[in-house]
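Final paragraph of the annual report: two paired records, presented back to back.
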Amino acid sequence: MIANEKALHDLEWGRLLSHLAARCACEDAALRCLSLPFLEDDEAWARLAAVGEILSRLREDDAPPRLAARPFAEALAHVRGAGAVPGDALCAIAANLGLYASAARYLDNRRDRCPLNAALAIPKGGERWALSLSRLAQEIESAFEPDGAISDGASPEIGRLRRRAVSLRQGLLARLDEIAERDADLLQERTVTLRNDRYVLPVRTDAHRRIRGIVHGTSSTGATVFVEPEEVVGLANDLTLAREDVIREEARILAALGAAVRDQMDEVSFACAIIVDLETGIAAARLALDLDAAAPSRAGPGEAEIIRARHPLLVLDGVAVVPATVTLRRGECLLVSGPNAGGKTVLLKTVGLFGLMLAAGLPVPADPRSRIGIPRAVLTDIGDDQSLENNLSTFSAHMRNIAAILAAARAGGLVLLDELCGGTDPLEGAALAEATLEALVAGGATALATTHFDTLKSRAQDKAGFVNAAMGFDVGGGRPTFELRLGLPGSSSAFAVAARFGIPDAVLDSAQRLLPEGVRELASAVAALDKAKHDAEIERLALAEQRSALATEAKRHADEMVRLRARDERFVDKEREALWQEIRRARERVRDAEATLKRRRVDAPGAKSARDAINAVAERLAPGGALGQGRPDELPGAPALPDDLREGARVHVVSLGKEAIVAEPLRGNTAFVRLGSARLRVPLEDLRFLGEARPRTGPAPKKPAPAREEAPDRVEAVPRGPVRTAGNVLDLRGATVDEAIDRVDAFLDAMLRDGADAAFVIHGFGTGALQDAIRRHLDGSRYVARWRPGDREEGGDGVTVAWLR
């Protein structure tokens, strides 16, 4: 994208970049923000997506670590060189590697939420050397004290050598103290001093020959001679050699650490650079958070449907901004008119800044439903470029700039022109402005221009490639509303503004009379159209409010229906459970009675008890009994045979007195039937077939099942598969793979114990890793006979339905 210095200056791009840099935690990232480059379209949209990932984390209070990286260019230059690497350079590298490790861990743990940033920070195969860099950072940090000095634990030798040097120094000072005590009368003062890195005594000039030793200088007055006594020269030499040993070991430690960094130079350089990249993106996300900004949908170059746009610098300055909604088309001019100080220039700058921000990968303060294309160029003529030095009037300066714009404009570019061709004769200026805009539109550029020329506004109303728009003005209050209204030209409202600032009424009345008739008629027509549009907008808002109220009421009714239906289903479930409990108890009493009779050890009272039990069950199952549903000849259909129980067949459940649909064919002596939302296992003897009549003597003839469309007396088959209830659903969304596998096994085990035949496992879509792991596990599970992905009504591929063994 092209944006010349004039456009960057007019749109105050530098101010916005300063706000971005202020949100950086390190100097290198701040410097990069101050010169943020404009990217190619695909790269810019990818950058926007990456910033959007971090912005989502910030909004969910899951902020990444602050990457307060230390400058690393000079440190890396030391490592690349042949000489020794200073300790502060190694410490800077270690600190940055530690930050990189923190950022890599953060992103690696959020690959599902930050895939773009994770791929940027940890390229393919990078997990291995990221761990290696973390160990290198720990090795360097352990070798230095917090103040940057090499620690005693940096090597096995360094501590010993330093202790020896300290011991020698203490011995040397102790011997000097003894000499000073002995020869106190020869000294200026009883202190030990350091000269030329040697320990000396301050001897009076007239007495220095009385102390044998090496003279290392005199005082500025000449009254004192600094003497290293001969008695301590050997000790001092030993101390010097010990210190040299320490220096050599420190140099060896630095060389070894430098070599370790040099061995991983490519990875170290990448890690240091990526910290700056990440911190720049994090700063962009922080700025977007403060602006309540978002990345819009992608449109073509020069096209935009911007919803509720706000000027970013005004938002950052704390100004209450009236949002504007504007539509731009490639090869079209939006001509904005309206009062002075009514927001026209702010609108131009807002649209221009949006183009620059998107090209730099920065979200914009507008509704995320907006669609904006990155322009191929941003060219502006905003403000007063009058130059006394170059002998240019305001009009001349504008013409020079307009000539440059016409030369640089291109298809898909954005051209912003404020008060085009103002400052000259209105008729000539309007004609020149119209011709300029026609040339830009013909070349495929998108133009956004402001004007006070009534003739230009009038011609644009019906001119192809031109769209009028007006900034709102409250005539009653005499103030602009800063709202953009598309489709109509706006009045300059010069008289209302003048009145507001104290121009006398007599002057205003005289000016009104001096206006040409055509201008007055145009102003009246614009006012009438504006009022009509305003009234239509009020009516639209009223209708929208009514629609909203109706939608709310409809939702309330729908919620009430759902509540009532759920209550009824709960009631039916309770009644159904009670009936089945009664049936189970009756069957148990029959079995007890049969067992008693089979044992044939029944006395008269026992026989009477068994007979009474059977009679009691018979009474409960008889017509009119607690569980009876009528006499057999009064029951619907005929006793069901195995061949009748095809999927979709209508049956009557005798024990419940309800009609049901066969969900699965007979298994052994039981079949699954669907009764409303419930799915029941019912024995064959409890079912009556409600299909077409058939011979009841002899075995039922076997014949192929007719197609469903050929069985008019059968209801349509219910969809294949089990019924989903609150008790047979396991929701694993958000779980890790290991957690999910453990929970699946526990859930299937419980389902099997409860006699369930199928289960629903919700894993969602996500990256597909959780879905694949669960299905692989079900393939080998001892609980599962088969499985399939969910139907569209069951949740689609985000759900797996499993049948139990």
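The closing record of the year follows.
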Amino acid sequence: SQTGGATQGPGGINGTDINNYFGTLILEVPSGAAGTYTIPLKSDPLTTFLADENSLTLLLTLNPGVIAIACQTNADCDDGNACTNDTCNQESQCVNTPNYDPAQSCCNPADGTLTPLSDNNACTDDVCDAGTGVVSHPPKPAGSTCGNSADTQCDNPDSCDGAGVCLSNFEPSGTACGDPTSTDCNGADTCNGSGVCLNNFATAGTPCGDPSDTDCTNPDTCSGAGVCLSNNASNSTPCDDGLFCNVGEACLNGVCTGGAARNCSDGLPCTSDSCDDVNDVCVNDLDPGNCLIGGMCYSDGQLDPANDCQECDTASTTTDWTFLNPGTACDDGDPCTGTGRPGIGIDTCDGSGVCSGTPDPECNDQCSFAIPLVEGSQNSTISAGGNDDVEATCQPNSNNDIWFVYTATCDGLVFMSTTGSNLAPSNDTVLSVYDECPDQSGVELACDDDSGAGLQAALTLSVVAGEDYFVRIAGFEQNVGPVVITVETVNDCVIDGVCYAAGELNPMNDCEACLPLLSSLDWSPRAEGSACGDPSDSECDGPDACDGAGFCEVNNKPDGIVCADDLNVCTFDVCQAGACAHPPVAEGSPCGDPTQLECDNPDTCDAVGVCQSNFVAMGTPCGDPGDDQCDNPDTCTGDGFCGQNFEPDGTFCNDNDICTNDDQCVSGLCEGTPIPEAPLVDENGPRSVLATPQPPASIAPVALRVTSPDWPCLDKYVQANGTLAAAPVFQLPSAWGTISLVGPDMVPSTTYVIEAECGAFTSPAGMAQTCNWCDINCDGAVNGADILFQVNGFQGDLGLGVSFEAMDVHPCAPDHVINGLDILRCVLAFQFQQTYADTGCPLPCP
């Protein structure tokens, strides 16, 4: 049977302005007569009419009725197809669904036999004849896509040949690809005919690049990976750059470089020292105004220390002595010649380098004419007929005496000897010493006759520095002839008239000392290895030591050996002249940061040992050349970085996104504030909620996304009619207005989360909960008031303060009709506490 009631169409509720009349039609339906039938109404003014309150007959438009006769069992739904499952669902409707996967198989409807649909060939279509279950595989048209879709230089996308075969479409072998560069070690890339781009690297060890074979580099060879290897010797390896004047060179990145100037000093103050790289020699040019004689320097006009009749005369020669002119005053070393007395004159040069003077017979014949006696040996002559001032106590028979006066240089003992004299006839001398001349009451202090070699005299005398001592030399009996008198200090040295104690060092040369056993008149060389000069012992300089010949050797370590690193890659660390020096490496040598960037070239050394950053000039284009409203083209900053040149944050812009407003630049990007706000959401009965997108005047279309914490699987969008589906629907908020969300996914006692989506933006969420099952007025209880709302609604009274959707609870997908079934649902809920689950309706998450 079918019962009348109020109905609602898509455009609203019918019958709200006029009364609606309904009747009951009872049909007898034969068993098994399931299906859809049309029932026409008889047009007879006597039986079918419509009258007003005054019983006036009104025009009546009759429309046929359409009814569906429900199924009772699954058998009622048999469609005679072995490939379907035939069922009668809860709403008494026949459902005939495939009992196989049509995407995988083809089914014969006669017996249900399945045939695999696919032949796994991308170049054929898989066609199922639904009437017979027969599968065919006609080839796809030539050029259809198949297989590998990669599109590279050596491999085009696969395509069908029109006969069911998938072609690889590789580029022919030898086709150019990849890097076209061709070098000694890396040939231009080519395809191999199988879709691969080959590098074409030369095998490892193949000659390439620089064939030079030097101290610092071997011939270049390929690495096998496309790189030409320099094969350089290790940095700091000693090498020879071929320059005579450069020593201590070392390898740096395959180049022999660095080193120090060769030391060409000859140690002479009168020469200018230089190095000649052309002839590979040291040059020691004599400075003007100097002579170099016997390896010693003398200035122009300086006398020969051994012969004052010779001088350095640069106008004549710079390599030998020049004789002084005849008559030039000189000193022949004999105090008894050229005394200057009348008739004697002075000593003079003879023009051939010889100094001589006339002997003075009265030179030292008397004590009052005593000549000076100094340390060392001195010559004189005892002549016959000379005065005999006094007799020596040690030998009274001593005659023909001569006199010397000795002024003591040192305190201590003095040794005097006549050894070397040559008197005749018996060469016997007598030696005596007085504190004053005898005629001045002098006292004899010492006397000796034969203590020396042969019959020569020798004695030791204690003296006081600065005191004068008068020395008498006489011949025994009548011996006369040449005399040699030698004076030596004992345990002291007298050098250049200065007294030095034994062992005292030469103030001008600490490799010489006063060593009386060797000489008391001159400095003696100290033993080889004696400490001298600089005692420091460092990586480039050993302690100085005497060479045993009076010279101090500096003992520098060889120039060019590696010494302490100054941590500067732009300098060498090598010994030079005894010190650790750091000469600069070659200009352009790599150092520091090797990175090659748009704004920063690799660091290199300059010519003075400084590592330069080599930053690209400020303003040079780099990075992103894009020029838009928030980002100007990038340029180098001058300190190695690529500046982004963003417009200031807050600059107004347009992001061309309808979903945003108040667009501003932020870090080079135009960003706007999303327009959508959280929708206004409210309860609307057990099977519906209301949603109103915000802001109402927005120009940004939005879709309304619906989820629920109670049903995690639910993720759908509101459709224009209020139902939910997978696809979003975009409308302006003004077009959405306030919409009721309805349909099978809207179930009682459920929290729904609704967000507005616009482009990439999602608004904050609005939330509302559907009321309890059949709680029509949403007061938290199901009672007679809820049923009364439905009865009134059924009778057409819809101005009740509750929504139509709140009363429309039946069927599982509300049908927009309020009738007895809606009321029945709530009566069962009221009388028997029936729940929504008891209705058998599906839930959002099965």
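Residues 348 and 402 are 25 Å apart (CA to CA). This concludes the annual technical report; the extension proposal builds directly on these records.
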